[in-house]
Amino acid sequence: MRTKTKSFTALAVLLACSITHANAAVISFVDENIPIPANYSGVAVDLETGTTGTTITGLSGGDLNFVFAGQGLSNDADETVDAPSWQPIREGTENTDVLANLGVGVVVGPSSPSSTGYGGAPNNFVNFTPGEKGYVGFSLVLDDGNDTIAFGWLEVTFQNNDTPGVIHSWAFENTGEPLAVAAIPEPAQSFLLAMTLAIMAIRRRRS
Length: 207
What we know:
With 207 residues, the protein is an alpha+beta fold. It folds into two domains: 1-24 and 185-207; 26-184, no CATH class. It contains two helices and twelve strands, in the order αββββββββββββα. It has helices at 2-23, 187-206; strands spanning 26-29, 34-36, 43-45, 52-53, 64-67, 72-74, 86-88, 107-108, 133-141, 149-157, 165-173, 179-180. The strands form three sheets. Strands 1, 2, 7, 9, 10 and 11 form a six-stranded antiparallel sheet that branches. Strands 4-3-5-6 form a four-stranded antiparallel sheet, with no helix packed on it. Helix 1 crosses helix 2. The chain starts with a helix and ends with a helix. The relative contact order is 0.20.
């Protein structure tokens, strides 16, 4: 009896994990702490998978590319595609407008200003302080077969010397809904809810 109970518990945990993953709307990558090298190649990141690359040739499937420790950026991380998948939130809608440093709780969505084509920014330190954390909002075209435009945020530290910058964490809402800066899922609550649903389903099958 104890063995069967343990088996049901293990199955419930597996089901709970799958339910949480399947219904997840906010995808988060927390405490990744990816260095931004202080060189021209910088680091390219695929925001959907967390894959990174630091070569001059870019990254297949890549979205953003921060260079020179964060002093500059490009949204041409994947040089084989015809249009950028990632657009940072800026002060305006031109490709050379500087990045906005968003406060915690600011909502990133369709009305947030961003450009439409390829482009960087001449100086990221108009709104960011070297060595201090800040938040970059963004839109992202997902590789989901529907070209869903997701909205999210990055927690970053940029530098203006030979010290690497850091991409600390990021998150995006995978259904296209707006997302508040620094908002991440609450895994404990989601897990408990999924566990409850899984156990109820198992009990129904046994009765």
